[in-house]
Structure to design on (435 residues):
C-alpha cells in the first residue's frame, strides 16, 4: 500500500495525506528567492536588508529585536511587549493612525517584530512615529496602565480559551529548562508586577542597535532608508549584543503529561515533539513529514470516525522546529491511540516517490502565493539571515524540499517523532490507563 497526498489527485488512498488540512501551519519558512533588487548594508552600525519592489506603493518596515525569550526571565516575561505597547499608545497611536499605516507588534520566541506597513508617500511621517516609539518610549503612568490592561485582557483570553491554554501548557512541558518555556507575551502575574521603572531600565539596556535587524520591502530607495535611519534609530546606543541561534532543546527520554482536570463537553489533547534546527538538512523533510501527519490525523480522527471537529499536526516555526499532534474530542480515550497509530503508519507505510514530488510541487506553488505581500517577504528574508546566516539563501529551503525522498521522511519520523510531551484539558476519568 502506498501513502498518497490528496491534492496530488492520485487515487482513493489520497485522503490519508490531506497535507496541511484543518489548521495545520502551511507557512513555509524561506520562499523568497534572491534577486538584483535585494541587498544589505549597514547604517550607523545597524544591519539593514532591503528589497525594492516597484509593483505597488506599499512599503513594509519590519524591525527585529533579536533574542526573544532569551532576553526574559521568569519574572520579566512580557516586558518587551509591555514596553513597546506602552510606547505606542496615546499621541503616538493617533499620529500613526493619521498616516493610514498599519502597525506591527509581535513578540515571538526568537525575536520581537515591531514595524508598520504604509504608503510610500507617507513613509517619512510613519517612520518618525515608528522611530520615536523606540527612541523616546512613552512610559507615563497612564500609557503603562493602558498597555498593561490591553495585554492582560489578551492573556486572560488566551488562558481562558482551552484551545489557547493547552498550547501554553504543552509549551511548558516540552521546553522545561529552555528559554522557549517562557511566554513572550507575559503572564498575568508578570504583567501585574512590572513597573514603569522596570520598563525604563529595560529600554536603556536592551533597545540597542546591535540587537536590531531592519528589513524594508517596498517601493522606496536605499538613500531614503539610509537617511531615515541615520536621523533616528541609528543614534541609539550600539550595545554589545551578538545574535546566535538558541541552544538545543533538551531531548526528553520519555513522554510526560501536564493534566488539567476540567468538566467540559469537549476534551483537548496536544502533544509536541522537537525537531531539527532550521539550519539542518533534516528541516525540510521534517516539515513534509509533519504535514503528512496532519493529513493522517484529520482523515482518521475527524473524517473517518467523526471524533473531532479539528485534528491536525501543528508546526511551530522557530529556530528549533517543533511538530505536534492535536485533537479536540468528546472521546479522548479513543483518540489518543489513533494519534499514536498515525505516527506508526507514517513510519511503516510506503510513500510513492512520484506522489511525493507532486506534493512538493503543490507546496512550492503555495510558497509563491504566500510570499506575495511585502511584509511576508520581509519575514522570509529575516529568517534566512538569522536562521541560515545569509538572506541570499532564501531559495535553499525550496531546493531542500525538491530533494526530499521517502527515505528522508521515514528518517525524521523515526528520529524526532518520539517521546512526545503531552498536555490534556478535560475529563481525566475517561483517560484512565491511557496516560
Amino acid at each position: 500500500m502506498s501513502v498518497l497526498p490528496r491534492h496530488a489527485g492520485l487515487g482513493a488512498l489520497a485522503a490519508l495525506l490531506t497535507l496541511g488540512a484543518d489548521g495545520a501551519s502551511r507557512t513555509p519558512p524561506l520562499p523568497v528567492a534572491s534577486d538584483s533588487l535585494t541587498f544589505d548594508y549597514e547604517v550607523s552600525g545597524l544591519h539593514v536588508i532591503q528589497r525594492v519592489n516597484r509593483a505597488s506603493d506599499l512599503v513594509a518596515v519590519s524591525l527585529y529585536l533579536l533574542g526573544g525569550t532569551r532576553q526574559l526571565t521568569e519574572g520579566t516575561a512580557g516586558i518587551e511587549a509591555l514596553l513597546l505597547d506602552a510606547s505606542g499608545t496615546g499621541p503616538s497611536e493617533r499620529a500613526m493612525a493619521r498616516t493610514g499605516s498599519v502597525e506591527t507588534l509581535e513578540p515571538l520566541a526568537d525575536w520581537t517584530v515591531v514595524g508598520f506597513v504604509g504608503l510610500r508617500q507617507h513613509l517619512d511621517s510613519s517612520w518618525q512615529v515608528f522611530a520615536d516609539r523606540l527612541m523616546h518610549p512613552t512610559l507615563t503612568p497612564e500609557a503603562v496602565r493602558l498597555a498593561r490592561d490591553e495585554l492582560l485582557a489578551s492573556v486572560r483570553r488566551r488562558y481562558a480559551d482551552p484551545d489557547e491554554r493547552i498550547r501554553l501548557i504543552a509549551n511548558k512541558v516540552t521546553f522545561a529548562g529552555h528559554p522557549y518555556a517562557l511566554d513572550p507575551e507575559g503572564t498575568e502575574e508578570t504583567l501585574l508586577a512590572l513597573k514603569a521603572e522596570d520598563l525604563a531600565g529595560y529600554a536603556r539596556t536592551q533597545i540597542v542597535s546591535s540587537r536590531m535587524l531592519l528589513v524594508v520591502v517596498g517601493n522606496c530607495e536605499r538613500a531614503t532608508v539610509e537617511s531615515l535611519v541615520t536621523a533616528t534609530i541609528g543614534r541609539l546606543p550600539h550595545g554589545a549584543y551578538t545574535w546566535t541561534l538558541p541552544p538545543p532543546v533538551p531531548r526528553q527520554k520519555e513522554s510526560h503529561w501536564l493534566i488539567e482536570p476540567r468538566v467540559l463537553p469537549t476534551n483537548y489533547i496536544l502533544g509536541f515533539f522537537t525537531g531539527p534546527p532550521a539550519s539542518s538538512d533534516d528541516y525540510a523533510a521534517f516539515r513534509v513529514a509533519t504535514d503528512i501527519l496532519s493529513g493522517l490525523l484529520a482523515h482518521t480522527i475527524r473524517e473517518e470516525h467523526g471524533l473531532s471537529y479539528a485534528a491536525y499536526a501543528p508546526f511551530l516555526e522557530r529556530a528549533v522546529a517543533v511538530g505536534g499532534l492535536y485533537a479536540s474530542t468528546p472521546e479522548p480515550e479513543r483518540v489518543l491511540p489513533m494519534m499514536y497509530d498515525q505516527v506508526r503508519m507514517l513510519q511503516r507505510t510506503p510513500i510513492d516517490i512520484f506522489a511525493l514530488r507532486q506534493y512538493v510541487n503543490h507546496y512550492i506553488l503555495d510558497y509563491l502565493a504566500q510570499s506575495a505581500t511585502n511584509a511576508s517577504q520581509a519575514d522570509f528574508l529575516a529568517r534566512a539571515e538569522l536562521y541560515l546566516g545569509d538572506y541570499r539563501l532564501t531559495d535553499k529551503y525550496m531546493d531542500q524540499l525538491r530533494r526530499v525522498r521517502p527515505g528522508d521522511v521515514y528518517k525524521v519520523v523515526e528520529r524526532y517523532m518520539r517521546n512526545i510531551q503531552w498536555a490534556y484539558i478535560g475529563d481525566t476519568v475517561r483517560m484512565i490507563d491511557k496516560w
Observations:
- The chain has 14 helices and twelve strands.
